Amino acid sequence: MKLRTIIVEDEVLGQEVLTTILKDYCSDSIELLDVTDNVEKSIQAIKQNNPQLVFLDIMLGNNDNGAFDILKSLDRIDFKVVFTTSSEQSEHILKALNKYGAKKYLLKPLDIDEVVAAVELVKNETKSQSLEDELSRIKKLISSIGHPEVYKVQISVKNGIQFVQSTEIIMFRSNQNSTLVFMTNGETLSTSKNLKHFEEQFSEEIFIRVSRSYIVNIHHVERFCNEDGGTIYLHGGCTAALSDIYSKKFFEALKV
Fold first, then answer.
1. How far is CA 55 from the centre of its chain?
2. Alpha helix locations (H) across the chain?
3. Bond prior to 51 in cis (omega within 30° of 0)
4. Phi and psi at residue 214, in whole multiples of 5°?
5. How many domains does one find in the chain?
6. Taking every pair of C-alpha atoms in the chain, what is the biggest distance, in angstroms?
């Protein structure tokens, strides 16, 4: 099976390098459909060709986030993505790619072995993994690249739905079959949704699972105390227990 593939790259040399690698080393795996160099042409090419794989340069011309403008403009993302970028890209974007893109982003100048490995990875995933997983991954990535700290959150409460800003949420705490949402204004909302529901809704760059019972907004963390097994102190006098299995992710998030 050959993967129907599109290259999105604004530099002619970059186009030639990637095209040559795919033709010389991945000819049994890749059917190259088109090569585009800007947001508008790329959106059109993807809609017309229905690719299975897109090599997507992040910076397109003067647009530092061209790749994400393309993805946000599509009604659906039913293809695999391998991002290409330079080490000069912002640290935040590189971190997000590392987190959500796994091995599927390549630093320029492109390495032949890494391109081949990325193609093999996509082939294996195409055989075994639902494209719904890709859609979820891309949505999280786009959210983390943008401004996830400024968006509306729907909280299902007893008498309807309450809309709050994500910045106003200090933490979530599991409460038997419900979840308590602690707010910066001192209010505590109760919702029938479980903690996993909220874990799946938010960017892991901001909202961090720290134990079976708590998710915290990393921006509201004030201090950590390693007594009593580890306690996180947050805005408004809120506290959350930190479990060993979540501690690595928590401390990594504090470096953002």
1. 17
2. 12-25, 39-49, 66-73, 91-101, 112-128, 131-145, 195-201, 244-253
3. no
4. -135, 140
5. 2
6. 62
DSSP 60: B
From residue 14, give the alpha-carbon distance in Å to each of 40, 66, 83, 102, 255.
19, 16, 13, 22, 33
Q: Which tokens sit at 33?
A: 């459909």
pLDDT tens digits, 173-204 = 999 889 999 999 999 999 999 898 888 777 66
Is the entire prediction scored with pTM above 0.70? no
Strand partners, 203: none
Q: In this structure, what CATH number is given to the domain that contains residue 48?
A: 3.40.50.2300
Per-residue pLDDT tens digits for 138-158: 766 666 565 444 467 788 888
Range of the domain at 23: 3-145
* Cα dihedral 175, 181, 184, 188 sign: negative
